[in-house]
Structure formats: structure tokens, C-alpha cells
Amino acid sequence: MTTTSTVSTAGAAYWEPLWSEGRRYRQLDDTENQLMEEHLGPGRARPALDIGCGDGALARRLAQLGYRTTGIDCSPSAVALAAARDTRPGHAVWQCMDITTDDLSALPEPAYAVITCRLVYRWIDDKPAFLDRVRRLLAPGGTLWVVTEVAGRRATTDPAIPRPGITPAEAETLTAGWSIARTADLDVLRCYALRP
Ligand SMILES: C[S@@+](CC[C@H](N)C(=O)[O-])C[C@H]1O[C@@H](n2cnc3c(N)ncnc32)[C@H](O)[C@@H]1O
After folding, report:
1. Each residue of 33-60: pLDDT tens digit?
2. pLDDT of 3
3. Which ligand 1 atom is nearest residue 98's CA?
4. CATH number, residue 104
5. Is the CB–ligand 1 distance for residue 123 below 6 Å?
6. In this structure, which residue's CA is closest to atom 16 in ligand 1?
7. Stated pTM of the model
8. pLDDT per position as a tens digit, 89-108
9. 62 within a domain of the structure (yes/no)
10. Is any atom of ligand 1 closer than 6 Å to the C-beta of 56?
């Protein structure tokens, strides 16, 4: 049976209590890092933005690859954790920001060669509006890297978890209108490399 969740997972009101109570999410592993690096390439001091950075692991990886990295998250506790785990001051910029509502001109750069968004797209309420905002931030020739759970891949689904992965229609919304859309599967996750 499919049920439609009415729980809003849109911003800090949902995420801040989870982070401050110690909730943590799937860790990056070598396979996922390698896939990302194959699709994004070396940083060469180009700007990168990680949306919904959480504890900052992916943004730190981008910084290690040589990207001039900014990590943003709507949860102040997540941003504080990301900054605390950043052992190389000046390595990355950490900013508390809601990508769906806040003024994008508050970001350090007007445009990014790489934008990453891991385990976040699924939770965004208005996905077309979110994608419009992200496209505005992507530099010409840039890449949007999205990692998201796909609905129906888990053997069991906890009914307490809203939105168990993106639907085919939400995947279509994500991939429509890009000149290049590459995908790679990683168990319950799908990775998308999207170029304007
Ligand atoms: C499931 S966690 C994933 C965290 C991290 N990307 C990772 O892979 O571990 C989703 C993250 O997205 C953030 N988030 C959700 N909606 C957001 C929004 N509108 N603006 C900024 N961050 C958001 C949450 O605070 C949370 O840290």
C-alpha cells in the first residue's frame, strides 16, 4: 500500500531537532566517493556548493579534491558539527541557510562549478522550485551531483519514515531539461550527474 505523507520535511523545524538529538545519516564510503570523483573530476580551485551538508563529510571530501567549498544546511546544529569536524580552518566555508527560502546572494559565490546534494532532494517539498533555485547557482558547464534513495528498493520500510525514496515522477522532475543526465546505482541509492 502506498501512503502519501503530509509531514513537511522542508526546513529547520524538521531537521534541527533531529541533529540536536544526535541523529546521524548514512556515511560516505569509498565506492560512493569514487563514483562522485569520476563524475566531478578534480577541483582545481573551482567553487563547489554542498546543499544540506549535514556533518560536512561530503563537503570536506570536495575540499580535499581541491574545490573551494561551501557547505550549507538549514540546521544550526548540523552546521556547528560540520565546522567542528573541519580540522583545517579556511578549508571550507560553513553557512546556516535554507536553500528553498533564503536569499541566494548571501552565498560566498554567485555561481558554482559543482553543486552536490546528498540525501536531501527526497525531503524537499517543492522540487521544481528547488531545482530552479539550484540551476540559478550552477555555472555554465557545471555539474549538479544528486544522491538520493529511490522508492521501492528497501526490503522493508519503516512506516514512521516519511517519503521512502523518490518516485519515478520525482526522478523525472529531477532529470528533465538537462543536456546531460548520467546515473549510477548504489544499492538503495541512485546518483545523478546533471549538466545544463
Ligand atoms: C538526510 S540529511 C543528509 C545530510 C548530508 N547531506 C549527508 O549526506 O549526510 C538531510 C540534510 O539536509 C538538510 N536540509 C533539508 N532541507 C534543507 C533546506 N531546505 N535547506 C538546507 N538544508 C536542508 C537537513 O538539515 C539535513 O542536514
Report:
1. 999 999 999 999 999 999 999 999 999 9
2. 39
3. 20
4. 3.40.50.150
5. yes
6. 11
7. 0.94
8. 778 999 999 999 999 999 99
9. yes
10. no
Domain membership of residue 72 as a residue range: 12-21+32-195
Verify whether ligand 1 is closer than 6 Å to residue 102 (CB atom). no
Distance 53 CA to ligand 1 centre (A): 6
DSSP string over the chain: ----------SHHHHHHHHHTT---PPP-HHHHHHHHHHH---TT-EEEEET-TTSHHHHHHHHTT-EEEEEES-HHHHHHHHHH--STTSEEEEE--TTTS-GGGSS-S-EEEEEEES-GGG-SSHHHHHHHHHHHEEEEEEEEEEEEBTT-SSS--TTSSS-SB-HHHHHHHHTT-SEEEEEEETTEEEEEEE-
- Does 73 contact ligand 1 (Cβ within 6 A)? yes
- Answer whether residue 2 is part of any domain: no
Does residue 5 belong to any structural domain of this protein? no
For residue 185, being part of any structural domain is answered with: yes
Higher pLDDT, 157 or 192: 192
Contacts of 80 (CB under 8 A, 6+ apart): none
- For residue 35, the CA-to-ligand 1 centroid distance in Å is 21
Domain count, the chain: 1
